[in-house]
């Protein structure tokens, strides 16, 4: 199990020190939650751009960029310059599958891995045909848009369904899970079949980040 630490609730004033502490604690990725105030309520564009600029100069920990935006292509172009490990776009932000496939191709053509994210109400079956072309499926276990929410229990079944489909069809794609993940529900998330978990509040607000990340990985 790999851990991506969400930077959504990192305070700007102490961000450099916090990034260093997260890296030392053993995170696998820095998870960059990019919101535009349209696709979701909050707007984190300038904050996340600033964080990426800092991270590019101080760390080698890969960036895991999650775009919760309407104008997807322009955001891909804005964040691909930071050479992230992957950029994840939302299935729901595309007008149709063709547009979604164009974004996937553009990201891959720029030497970046690509993920597709689905909201809690979107069925995993909707994206089965995309799986051979992408590297990650990001299952949202809360409504995207803000940190600190409680995990929606019914979304765990989606992880199980997707895991079975991937294994049965021998497809190479990671399942990433994001939203309300903590030490109380990590066992259930792991057993459902996730490869990567995104955690923010539970890591950032813990007394010992290293211990928390180790427990999440176990």
Task: Fill in the keyword field for this structure.
single chain, 218 residues, TIM Barrel, 8-stranded parallel barrel, 37% helix, globular
Secondary-structure map with pairings?
Blueprint: E1 2-6, H1 15-25, E2 29-35, H2 45-58, E3 63-68, H3 72-80, E4 86-90, H4 97-109, E5 113-118, E6 136-140, H5 155-168, E7 174-178, H6 186-192, E8 196-199, H7 201-204, H8 209-217
Parallel strand pairs: 1-2, 1-8, 2-3, 3-4, 4-5, 5-6, 6-7, 7-8
Helix pairs in contact: 1-2, 1-8, 5-6
**Major sheet summary line:** 8 strands, parallel, barrel
Radius of gyration: 16 Å
CATH fold annotation: TIM Barrel
Strand fraction: 15-25%
Mean pLDDT: 96
Oligomer: single chain
Helix content: 25-40%
By DSSP (H or I, 4+ residues per run), the number of helices equals 8
- Class derived from helix and strand content: alpha/beta
Name the CATH architecture.
Answer: Alpha-Beta Barrel
Supply the CATH class: Alpha Beta
Shape: globular
CATH superfamily: Aldolase class I
Along the chain, the helix and strand elements come as EHEHEHEHEEHEHEHH
Number of domains: 1
N- to C-terminal distance: 7 Å
Q: Provide the low-confidence segments as ranges.
A: none
In short:
Helices cover about 35% and strands about 20% of the residues. It has about 220 residues and is α/β, with parallel strands linked by helices. It has an 8-stranded parallel β-barrel with strand order 1-2-3-4-5-6-7-8, surrounded by 5 helices.
